[in-house]
Specification:
The complex is a heterodimer of chains A (262) and B (258). By secondary structure, chain A is mainly α. Helix content of chain A is 83%, strand content 0%. Chain A contains twelve helices and no strands. In chain A, helix 9 packs parallel to helix 10. Chain A is flat. The two termini of chain A are 32 Å apart. Chain B is an alpha/beta fold and 258 residues long. Chain B is built from seven helices and ten strands. In chain B, the strands form two sheets. Chain B has a six-stranded mixed sheet with strand order 6-7-8-3-9-10, with helices on both faces. In chain B, strand 7, helix 5 and strand 8 form a beta-alpha-beta unit. The longest helix of chain B has 20 residues. The chains are: A mainly alpha (262), B alpha/beta (258). At the A-B interface, helix 8 and helix 9 of A face strand 6 and helix 2 of B.
Chain lengths: 262, 258
């Protein structure tokens, strides 16, 4: 009875756990008993687990992570600093919107990773080149979401500020930015995914360290378990950061979580 | 009587996107004395809200002039504050911070702001909700915050644009009584736009009935009920008679629009 009730209440969690467990077990069993594939060409969870343990205890993984994080943080921070103001002003000022729109739409729609070789040539193979690539990929969700947020700002609130003699700066700081915050954070969720792509692609092209480099290197040398360790760590980071954004969204916009009046 | 608010021949038209332009007000004139409570009723779209927005300084009339205390109104100002139908509270601010908004925008010092907000929150009966957010309040409570915010800046003229229209009937009755009490002791000049004849009759010294679009003054009715007014007064034959008089004027405008 109580177990049943517990399961009913937390079914989201335990269904998720079950599906992961089922997939991993099936993968392991199939590759062990049904198609015992040469470990040179494919791998299975037990081997990945061993590699995982080894890597966590070693120094190289942490060094690679530190190298990649540095580039990611630089690129992402600049995307925030540039993307949000550009989006806000674009949303508020028609003239700016019409001027920037063609470039932004074209750039947002195209596969920007195609520019990776150029970025590496211009900015080099170090932190700068990768950070620039992260910036390029991550800046657009900030611009477009900030823009959409401004467009959805309640015009009544604008009038309230104006009626008390508020200035243009007051409009930005007291209404437009706070009401756009949830949009910006939703944009950040997209930007995280795109920024990680930026890092990995940058390191695939040209690098001698970093998590993306570690993944290609493992792949090139047929160390498949090590390659999967890199992939799993990347997805853990992505999920962690995305969840963090979800929490942040509830923090800055608690009124969106509960719409009904008590 | 030297009038406190004087609107002369106001004309306002606007053009909705891809449509023909609409004349909201045409040669609309109105005089209001200091401390007077004046309600404006009229068919939907007759420009009553537009008039309040002109008075507030948010929109400019195409022609005509509007003066407050002998000075021409050209934009928003210290002496006027609006209570909005949909409250217009900032959802990311607590009750206190919302009430402080007007003072903050006028550059009042934080400590003074907080004192004043506490005072006003007490006046509208929300003392226990000072640190709540708007989404945690009922409609009536939200409008109390709206009223407190407007009163916080100590305006001479309080503009109210269908302030109780979004509330349920009982909350509405209650808010009307409280508004009267606040008005009796602050003696603000109030311009009150409403669709409710009952509300207009109960609250006002005078009721302006506006014509259908383009809005002009159709009739001005003086409400000679003694003050202070209480709820029971609304059940008297005299009150019904007043309502009927307003209705008679308004009826023609409503039917003429089809």
């Amino acid at each position: 009875m109580t177990v049943k009730k517990y399961l009913a209440e937390h079914r989201r969690l335990w269904l998720a756990l079950c599906s992961v467990f089922f997939l991993v077990t099936a993968w392991e069993l199939v590759l062990t008993y049904v198609f015992p594939v040469n470990p040179f060409f494919f791998t299975k969870p037990s081997l990945i687990a061993v590699a995982f343990k080894e890597q966590i205890q070693g120094a190289k993984l942490w060094h690679d992570l530190a190298v990649s994080s540095q580039a990611f943080l630089w690129g992402f921070s600049f995307a925030v600093i540039v993307g949000i103001p550009v989006g806000l002003v674009m949303g508020w000022r028609r003239r700016v919107e019409y001027t920037l729109d063609p470039f932004l739409t074209a750039l947002y729609a195209s596969p920007l990773v195609a520019l990776a070789p150029m970025f590496i040539i211009v900015f080099g193979v170090g932190v700068l080149g990768k950070a620039a690539l992260v910036f390029l990929l991550a800046v657009f969700p900030f611009v477009f979401n900030a823009f959409a947020g401004v467009k959805s700002t309640d015009s009544l609130l604008i009038n309230v500020i104006r009626s008390y003699g508020g200035s243009e700066k007051d409009l930005y700081l007291k209404v437009i930015l706070p009401s756009t915050m949830p949009y910006i954070i939703a944009g950040a969720r997209l930007a995280i995914g795109r920024g990680l792509v930026g890092i990995i692609v940058g390191e695939f092209y040209a690098a001698s360290e970093g998590i993306g480099f570690a993944i290609t290197q493992a792949g090139d040398t047929y160390r498949l378990p090590d390659m999967f360790v890199g992939i799993i760590i990347l997805s853990l980071i992505a999920v962690g950061l995305t969840e963090l954004m979800r929490k942040l969204e509830l923090m800055v916009a608690p009124w969106r979580a509960t719409d009904e009046v008590p | 009587m030297a009038s406190f608010i004087q609107a002369q021949n106001l004309t306002l038209s606007f053009r909705p996107k891809n449509r023909e332009s609409v004349t909201a007000l045409k040669n609309f004139s109105l005089e209001v004395g200091k401390g007077e409570f004046v309600s404006i009723v009229g068919p939907s779209g007759c420009g009553k809200s537009s008039f309040l927005n002109i008075l507030l300084g948010l929109i400019k009339p195409d022609s005509g002039e509007i003066q407050l205390n002998g000075t021409r109104i050209t934009g928003p100002g210290q002496e006027r504050a609006m209570v909005f139908q949909e409250f217009g509270l900032l959802p990311w601010r607590t009750v206190t911070a919302n009430v402080e908004l007007g003072l903050e925008l006028k550059g009042v010092a934080p400590t003074r702001r907080a004192e004043r907000a506490t005072e006003l929150i007490k006046l509208v009966g929300l003392k226990d909700f000072a640190s709540h957010y708007p989404h945690e309040l009922s409609g009536g409570m939200k409008q109390r915050v709206g009223l407190a915010r407007a009163l916080a800046t100590d305006p001479e003229v309080l503009l109210m644009d269908e302030p109780f229209a979004a509330l349920d009937a009982q909350t509405r009755d209650l808010m009307q009584m409280e508004l009267l009490q606040i008005w009796e002791h602050t003696k603000k000049t109030v311009l009150f736009v409403t669709h409710s004849i009952e509300e207009a009759a109960y609250l006002s010294d005078r009721v302006i009935v506006m014509s259908a679009r383009p809005g002009r003054t159709k009739d001005i009715l003086k409400i000679d009920l003694p003050r202070p007014r209480d709820y029971e007064m609304r059940l008297t034959p005299k009150f019904n008679e007043i309502k009927l008089r307003i209705w008679d004027v308004l009826k023609e405008e409503l039917t003429s629009r089809g």
